[in-house]
Write a structure and sequence with these properties.
One of its GO terms (biological process) is vesicle-mediated transport. It holds the Pfam family Alpha_adaptinC2. Its main location: membrane. The chain is of the alpha+beta class and 788 residues long. Helix content is 54%, strand content 9%. The chain has 34 helices and ten strands. The strands form three sheets. It has a five-stranded antiparallel sheet with strand order 3-4-5-8-7, with no helix packed on it. Strand 1 and strand 2 form a beta hairpin. It starts with 9 loop residues before the first helix and ends in a 9-residue tail after the last strand.
């Protein structure tokens, strides 16, 4: 490639740079050209200064250093020639900002140019101040801008209005200076001036309540301007797809929304206009849809009439039929916000919303799912649940957890009957058992125990599901629990089904053994199956020896939990056989609000943290003596040394099917210390620690949502000191159901070989009603088991 001469033109430099074959070759070209530009800057060559600065700005656009051209910008701005001023101001906007000291040097030049006789020079100064003016520059030049707002030239007034917007954002207290001039601009006919005036008034109203009250007097003027735009004929200068200046219409509607919020007088003044816009605007083109969308938002935000709100919902319903997915998405987002206040109006579009569940776009599907769940009521629960279950069978994997959670909450609130409720949950477990929350199993078990007349029906249905498929762990756990509790009803074969299945004792035990031996079964599922097998020993008569054999096998199981259960059950067969029937009798009805149940309420009232230091947990530990805290394995013998209790699996489901032998000793498990580390926006985050080994600690975070709407996209990020090893398990979900319907848990394993003082920083991020929230927590101390 030929070397460029120092006087090469900008177009030639661009051509040579673009023809470079490698990045190194490009750097070489730019370095040579920058060296030549520096040399000419030092020589003070006035003839080529603007030419060289233009080339330097192109180099800056490519991402290479160009800071050495800052002072040249200052010199060119002070030049009397327009072409040099233009390049100088452009360079100032690109190379300077309010942090650069050189920016202060151009304040006097801008002030002089604001009084220049040429409107184009004034325009350059206004654009530069609006782009990079610092707070000091804005204070110095604000009177000049206010003067230009009252100029006779429309070209200058529209640019001065936008420059005033920048000044108000930088120095809000200067807003009072521009308020009278901004009001007077509304009488202008030029659309550019009107647009700038509306933007300026909007900014003033948002930053000052007093200005808001003053500007409410301008509502009739704004209404007249808007009516003129809506009813005006074709104007080539302002027409966009058949809509007269949609940009100005959108700005006016946004301003009206601010002025009418929480004000009856202003709202009444604009009701007729909003109805006129809603009925006379063509929604077939994007420009018309934009105007209608802003109209809907304005109607919903002000104190509008009920008929107008229904009209707004109907407009959003028409948007749902639009071929543009973006329009359908924003429509459902808006309907989601108003479904609580205008539920009946939104219900009319339920069919269209449900059809959006079949959309190929995942974001549209998610919005349609959230809106469909919000529309569920006692009247439409059956029909809408059929659609949701159909969607569950084919929905994307990332939406399954959210779908199952929403179905469970809706079924719990509006179930027409207990049988329908049970059938619905079993359908979900059969379809997506691997995507349900941890609390689903204990919740369903609690529901089944309360429906005494359905025990036979439920155990038959669950047995058939268990024989058909053992891959869905949640379904298998519930099936094992029911077979253990109601196995006698299963063997009787008495069921409301038209074709009751005759099941033998061997068939039931074969099914449970299959679960115990399957590689797909988790330790918790095997624990359910082992307990169910043991419970059947009091419900059948001919296969007790087989049950004793199955239980004894797991007495040497590598899994500690299964081993403990098997040893305890063997002890029941041998030493305490006379108590076996009493110990293994049916469980009493489980109270939904009992301590430890997943739906139990937790006390609120903690301070809202930003950075939280967790104090030592004050837990209410049982006051029993050491003998009362002995492990259940005391059944094996009169050991003088009490055995340490083995920690049960964290799942609440294991506790229900597990510690059956607690009936013997009246034991209460010692709870792990729990403290609240975060409580904000109806979201509370609790921390629980459990010391597993001498250097290992398990930390469990549990998040609860006490608001009326679900919290989605919930994530936790954890950082610890370098000497501590951290391992995070996958969370139980990313959607926290409303009204405390179910928590989300996240387990963190910490290995602290050096036994340093544990510290942790946690980032909490979630989405609520469309807005993303993020907070940082600092945890400097932990409850006792983490460090004792």
């Amino acid at each position: 490639m030929a070397d460029m001469s120092p006087s090469v033109r900008l177009q030639e430099m661009i051509r040579v740079i673009r023809s470079a074959r490698t990045q190194g070759e490009e750097r070489g070209v730019i370095q040579r050209e920058c060296a030549a530009i520096r040399a000419q800057f030092r020589q003070g060559d006035n003839g080529s200064r603007s030419h060289n600065l233009a080339k330097l700005l192109y180099v800056h656009m490519l991402g290479y250093p160009a800071h050495f051209g800052q002072m040249e910008c200052v010199r060119l701005i002070a030049s009397p020639r327009y072409n040099e001023k233009r390049i100088g101001y452009l360079g100032a906007m690109m190379l300077l900002d309010e942090k650069q000291d050189a920016s202060l040097l151009i304040t006097n030049s801008i002030k002089n140019d604001l009084s220049h006789s040429s409107q184009y020079v004034q325009s350059l100064a206004l654009c530069t101040l609006a782009c990079m003016g610092s707070a000091e520059m804005c204070r110095d030049l604000a009177p000049e801008i206010e003067r230009l707002l009252r100029a006779s030239n429309s070209y200058i007034k529209k640019k001065a209005a936008l420059c005033a917007v920048h000044i108000v954002r930088k120095v809000p207290e200067l807003g009072e200076l521009f308020t009278p001039s901004a009001r007077s601009l509304l009488s202008e006919k030029n659309h550019g001036v009107l647009h700038g005036a509306v933007v300026l008034i909007t900014e003033l109203c948002e930053r000052n309540p007093d200005t808001l009250d003053q500007c409410r007097k301008a509502v009739p003027e704004l209404v007249q301007i808007m009516k003129g735009l809506v009813m005006s004929g074709y104007s080539p200068e302002h027409n966009v797809a058949g809509i007269s200046d949609p940009f100005l219409q959108v700005r006016i509607l946004r301003l009206l929304r601010i002025l009418g919020r929480n004000n009856d007088t202003a709202s009444d003044a604009m009701n007729d206009l909003l109805a006129q816009v809603a009925t006379n605007t063509d929604s077939s083109k994007t420009a018309g849809s934009a105007v209608l969308y802003e109209t809907v938002l304005t109607i919903m935000d002000i104190k509008s009439e009920s008929g107008l709100r229904v009209l707004a919902v109907n407009i959003l319903g028409r948007f749902l039929l639009n071929n543009d997915r973006n329009i359908r998405y924003v429509s459902m987002t808006s309907l989601q916000k108003i479904v609580q206040t205008d539920h009946n109006a939104v219900q009319r579009h339920r069919g269209t919303i449900v059809d959006c569940l079949k959309d190929q776009d995942a974001s549209v599907q998610r919005r349609a799912l959230e809106l469909s769940l919000a529309l569920v009521s006692a009247v439409n629960i059956r029909s809408l649940m059929k659609e949701l279950l159909l969607f569950l069978s084919s929905c994307p994997l990332e939406l399954r957890a959210h779908t199952t959670s929403g179905i469970f909450i809706a079924a719990d609130r509006y179930a027409p009957s207990q049988r329908w409720h049970i059938d619905t949950i079993l359908h979900v477990l059969t379809t997506a058992g691997g995507d349900v929350r941890d609390e689903t199993v204990p919740n369903l078990i609690q529901l089944i125990t309360t429906a005494a007349e359905l025990h036979s029906y439920t155990v038959h249905k669950l047995y058939r599901a268990l024989v058909t498929d053992i891959s869905q762990q949640s379904l298998v756990q519930v099936a094992c629990w029911c077979i253990g509790e109601y196995g006698d009803l299963l063997l009787k074969g008495e069921c409301e089904e038209t074709e009751p299945v005759q099941v033998t004792e061997d068939d039931v035990l074969d099914a449970l053994e299959t679960v115990l031996q399957s590689h797909m079964s988790s330790p918790a599922t095997r624990a359910f199956a082992l307990t169910a097998t043991m419970k059947l020993s009091t419900r059948i008569t001919n296969n007790v020896d087989r049950i004793r054999s199955i239980v004894s096998i797991y007495g040497s199981c590598i899994d500690v939990e299964l081993q403990q259960r098997a040893v305890e059950y063997n002890a029941l067969f041998k030493k305490y056989d006379h108590m076996r029937a009493a110990v293994l009798e049916r469980m009493p009805v489980i109270d939904k609000n009992s301590p430890g149940h997943s739906n139990g309420d937790f006390t609120a009232g903690f301070k809202e943290p930003e950075l939280v230091k967790v104090k030592q947990a004050e837990t209410d530990r049982p006051q029993e003596t050491t003998d009362q805290a002995c492990d259940l394995l005391g059944l094996l013998g009169d050991s003088a040394q009490p055995l340490q209790p083995t920690t049960a699996p964290s799942s609440a489901s294991t506790n229900i099917g597990g510690d059956l032998l607690d009936l013997l000793g009246g034991l209460d498990p010692i709870p792990a210390p729990t403290v609240t580390v975060y409580e904000k926006n109806d979201l509370s985050l609790k921390l629980q620690t459990d010391k597993k080994t001498d250097t290992g600690v398990t930390v469990t975070f549990t998040a609860f949502n006490s608001s009326d709407t679900d919290i989605s996209s919930f994530t936790l990020q954890v950082a610890v000191p370098k000497s501590v090893q951290l391992q995070m398990k996958a969370p139980s979900g990313d959607v926290i159901p409303a009204q405390g319907a179910g928590p989300v848990t996240q387990t963190v394993f910490l290995s602290n070989p050096n036994k340093v003082n544990l510290k942790m920083r946690v980032r909490v991020q979630y989405s609520k009603q469309g807005s993303v929230c993020q907070d940082m927590l600092q945890i400097d101390s932990f409850p006792a088991p983490a460090w004792q």
